[in-house]
Amino acid sequence: MNSLLKNLWFRDPKEETTFINDNAVKIRAGILLTIPVYMLYTLIDVVFGPTWSVLENTTMVDTLETTWEWHTIYQVQATQRAYDYTVQTWILFFGLFEMLAGMFVLTSRFSPTIYLATLLAKNTKPNWKPLVPKRVAWSIGASFISVCLVFFNPDVFAGWVNAVFNSDVLPTTENFMPKWIPLVLVWVCLGFMWLEAILGYCVGCKLHALLVKLGIFKEECESCNNIDWEEIARKHAERKAQSD
Asked: Poorest-confidence range of 91-100, 151-160, 182-191, 206-215?
């Protein structure tokens, strides 16, 4: 337990290249998987759920008229559904905090899910993986969460943007973001986290490996450790000399 509190899921927090226990990462992904599941339920209800509700103990009156599809039109007392996203907003802020907290050794100590995942994984043989590729995965998750936060709080975000530009850039009386955007992102996020938690396949890590091969990132990566950067530079210089 002392080692758990001291090192968390790190092999050694003081290492120059930080490694974390991938078993704990998978467990944590399974825990956090509940967030996109709940958000998916919320968004499906918002996008496909009924907008109007007929009041109880009221009488429907036949107007003796029909629509173009020959549906009978009734006169009723109804209320338009109003949505309160307070709970969803706080859950998303927690998810955003978790995505950002896992990126660094210091902030990891404030994450309850990291402690829980490390505790659950303490009796299994550690599977050490570099932290850097995971940061790409969690950055993707943080960006998805940020978009959902904007969707659930469009007036607040619009107020900030309008204050910065001192102009009515975004409307504050309606949601300017199409409903399909957060719905698609939640499905993608759910798929990514399921792959991580169940199959151990990290999409963000694969993206990081691709960026390393392209030369955009040069941080150490388990999938990219065998890349000889000096050899790549030498071949690039040879091709350049031949072209000249």
From this structure: 206-215
Please tell me the total count of domains within the chain. 1
In a domain, 170, yes or no: yes
> What are 52-58's contacts with CB under 8 Å, separation 24+?
52/78, 52/79, 52/80, 52/81, 53/78, 53/79, 53/81, 54/78, 55/79
For residue 9, tell me if it sits in a domain.
yes
CB atoms within 10 A of CB 187: 13
In the chain, DSSP finds a helix count (H) and a strand count (E) of 11, 6
Strand locations in the chain (E): 19-21, 52-54, 61-66, 72-75, 78-80, 128-130
pLDDT by residue (tens digit) across 41-84?
998 888 887 777 777 777 778 888 888 888 888 888 877 777 88
Q: Token pair of 164, please? A: 């910065």
Q: Quick one: average pLDDT of 219-231?
A: 51
